[in-house]
What does this fold into?
Amino acid sequence: MAEGGARARAKAWAAEIGAARRRAGLLWPGVEHFLERARAQFALWLASEAAPGRLLPWLPVAFGLGIAFYFTAATEPALWAAGPVAALLIAAAVAARARAYGFVLALAGAAVAAGFAIATLRTATIAHPVLAFPVSSVNLSGFVEAREERARSDRIVIRVHAIDQLRRNVVPERVRVAVRKGTAPAVGTYISLKARLTPPLEPLRPGGYDFARDMYFQKIGASGYAYGAIKVLPPPQPIPLRLQFAAFVDKVRTGIDKSIRTVLAGDKGAIASALITGKRDAISEQVNDAMFVSGIGHVLSISGYHMAVVAGIVFFAIRASLALVPALANRRPIKKWAAMGALVAAAFYLVLSGAEIATQRSFIMIAIVLGGVMLDRPALTFRTLTVAALLVMALSPEAVVHPSFQMSFAATLALVAAYQYGIPWRATADSSLQARVALWGGREIAALILASFVAGLATTPYAAFH
It folds into this structure.
């Protein structure tokens, strides 16, 4: 009896669906035919993309979407729930790998869940105390971990050893304090000072820049400004090795910065130093404003462009030098040697420039490209970009909401697409010498113009949004 009732309900539902489809056809003639064609075209596209593996670049898109879902969550998700859900969907994707549609959908869901879980895990692993309310006139002591010279004042990041008048369980690990111009101690110095501290600032408007989020992922739990003089004291404990290395690097960077600005006075030296050491503090406010208004302010921030220039110059210099020795050029993998040298140069430039977050992401991308060269893999492909994006997002999920990450990968993606699918303006070996020379010059000039246009077009939506 129950089975007969179920069959009757199924027939009724089928009749209703058929009637709805007929009504849609009457209201919108051709809609059913359009939907059928759209379904067939989608199936054809999916098959053509999945066969050569071109669906792989969509994996970081789904992964990043999961991270974006995490950052838009109203409350902090539970780690114990996010991890198992991701593992379950990954297992479902493995089980459905024999089914084309099922595997694609399961893999997309698994990537979204994995992005959500990795962002949750990242937040949990770096959890640290954050100041909950403003405090005034507190005595704090600790090691100077970073210093920054600015136009009107200096700014230091202190790894806190002790803060008076605060309970131990609410003492931040790091605080960022503004001090008087020219009084910032060297990195690695143990100091004591009196300061006013406040919690990290929330966004000033909905969708605005979130200072608190960025400071949280830098493990900075408070910010403020110092009163009076800064006291340099003997450290109560040995200086950590990591801080000793940071102090050595800061000393080298400061020495190079001063040498450059001694030879090149004014903004010329300041800009040259910014491009080499990453220290942008000496650039005048007028020049900064002019560069940002003209749309080239990003040139002062060391990122993928600078990394590519340094690695490219070293790569071609080493390869060209080794090619002058016939015995090496004919018998040894000089291209791989050049890639290794370029990787070492990029790593040195990363350290010398201050190793900011955007520079670290750029180094990861360059390292993957050069690693592909050393493994005899094509350097500029969607797969290389996919691996770089996944690695960057896995190491620092918070990068997804940063303009530098979005614009960098958008520009790179557009350039790789233009490189692979653009017009191959190249001369063949059968062309005459005059044709090859003319085509080479025209092609290179056109490629430069096209690259600038494509990169600008790809980054415009993100620039407009932010």
